[in-house]
Specification:
Helix content: 40-55%
Order of helices and strands: HHHEEHHEHHHEEHEEHEEEHHHHHHHHH
Strand content: 5-15%
Oligomer: single chain
Largest sheet: 4 strands, mixed
Distance between the termini: 54 Å
Number of helices: 19
């Protein structure tokens, strides 16, 4: 198997994936752009070390990602070299395990997506499953038992050198922001290309257990929801899940975030069911969207308007692509108006001086007799973004010409195709 991993075509495909994903440098500071020159000089030596079982992966660089609940999620960034090697390993191991993975597992698998997992909520409701179990595994990626994981790998991987290489990645350690290093006696560093596959291998027994009990469920990495027909059944399933996860899998269930509840009160991957039992984004997702738009259009950023609009367009398109299953047209209309107002605010801040504002407003067709009512106003930026003179000059059509995304137009295309009448 180690030769399959080091096969040139497999390595080329791995490098292509890593390059496309870009990503930050690891502890060595090497960027994706720097890697080809490094590989040309050093790869023969590295490949020999891997073949002989002597290669030692570098520790991952620890970074912290803020979560919506105010806590932080730890990520480990491997070096570009280790990302390429991990990706090459995942490409060889993936097909071996993929054939036996559950139909209810949707995370990081070919031909599957978060949208397919979320759709199970609506499907379950239509089947009369009006209650659910939300089960949260506390710090899953940091608490995976290495011995259990390696035993699971042994069922399909007989190459000792491959197993040794994976084991060294698990135990490579992390380098903290202050330069100190910590050992990793347990856990799978979240952030490397191999981690999603290892997570699915660890949680596959859970999938099989739920299947054997005849449950309808959906799992995306360590997020999963079980759909049942009664409140009592939900309570029983939650209790048995806690026993199984903590007993058999040696994983910790976060009881504060795990519950048995009516399906309409549950959330899964940023989605919920609305009053009509249709998929909609959650209040948390809505809040995160507005917070991010505020960050992008913050009047104190000092970026060029074009750069702000380009960043805004990229974020809005990505957000709507993910939440395209939502039946939330009215909310889209409200958000579309709000986003344009945020852009008007940014323009007004950038123009700063009354004479600059006057010149720009006149150039955009404002009435010379009334333009002073806007340029000399002492009202704040947010109030002025809704001023009649400012709105007339920076109208929707002009904003669209500047590249400001129209949420309604994007939503229509996502739901009804490119020929949808906007």
């Amino acid at each position: 198997m180690i030769e399959d991993i080091l096969e040139p075509e497999n390595l080329a495909q791995a490098w292509k994936r890593v390059k496309a994903n870009k990503g930050a440098p690891g502890i060595d500071g090497m960027t994706v752009e720097d890697f080809p020159a490094f590989a040309r000089e050093h790869w023969p030596r590295i490949a020999t070390a891997i073949r002989e079982g002597n290669y030692r992966p570098a520790p991952v660089r620890r970074v912290w990602i803020p979560k919506s609940d105010g806590t932080q999620r730890p990520l480990g960034i491997p070096t570009v070299l280790d990302r390429v090697i991990q990706q090459a390993v995942a490409q060889v191991l993936g097909p071996l395990f993929e054939v036996d993975f559950s139909e209810h597992s949707y995370g990081y698998r070919p031909g599957r997506s978060a949208h397919m997992a979320v759709a199970e909520m609506e499907s379950g409701w239509n089947e009369g499953r009006r209650h659910a179990v939300e089960c949260d595994l506390k710090s899953f990626f940091d608490t995976v038992n290495h011995d259990r994981l390696m035993n699971a790998l042994l069922e399909k991987v007989r190459c000792r050198k491959t197993l040794r290489l994976i084991g060294r990645y698990l135990r490579a350690g992390v380098e903290l922001p202050d330069g100190t290093r910590e050992a990793t006696p347990q856990g799978v560093p979240q952030g490397g290309p191999l981690s999603p596959l290892l997570a699915n291998i660890v949680l596959d027994p859970l999938d099989k257990e739920l299947e054997s009990r005849g449950h309808k469920f959906a799992r995306y990495a360590d997020d999963f929801i079980v759909l049942v027909k009664s409140a009592n059944a939900a309570k029983r399933v939650l209790a048995s899940l806690i026993r199984y996860c903590e007993g058999r899998l040696q994983l910790i269930v976060n009881r504060a975030k795990s519950r048995a509840a009516p399906l309409k009160t549950c959330e899964f991957l940023g989605y919920r069911l609305n009053n009509r039992a249709k998929l909609a984004w959650t209040d948390k997702a809505h809040h995160r969207f507005k917070e991010r738009i505020r960050e992008i259009t913050s009047r104190n950023r000092g970026h060029r308007v074009k750069d702000v609009i380009d960043e805004l367009k990229l974020y809005v398109q990505g957000w709507l692509n993910y939440y395209k299953l939502s039946s939330t047209y009215k909310e889209v209309l409200v958000l579309s108006v709000w986003v344009r107002r945020r852009v008007r605010l940014y323009y007004w801040k950038q123009w700063k001086q009354p004479r600059t504002r006057r010149r720009n407003l006149l150039a955009l067709g404002a009435d010379p007799e009334t333009v002073h009512m806007a340029t000399r106003s002492r009202k704040g930026y947010w109030r002025m973004s809704q001023n009649e003179i400012v709105r007339y000059a920076l109208n929707n059509r002009w904003l669209e010409e500047q590249g400001v995304p129209d949420l309604r137009a994007i939503w229509m295309v996502l739901h009804y195709g490119p020929d949808a009448r906007v």
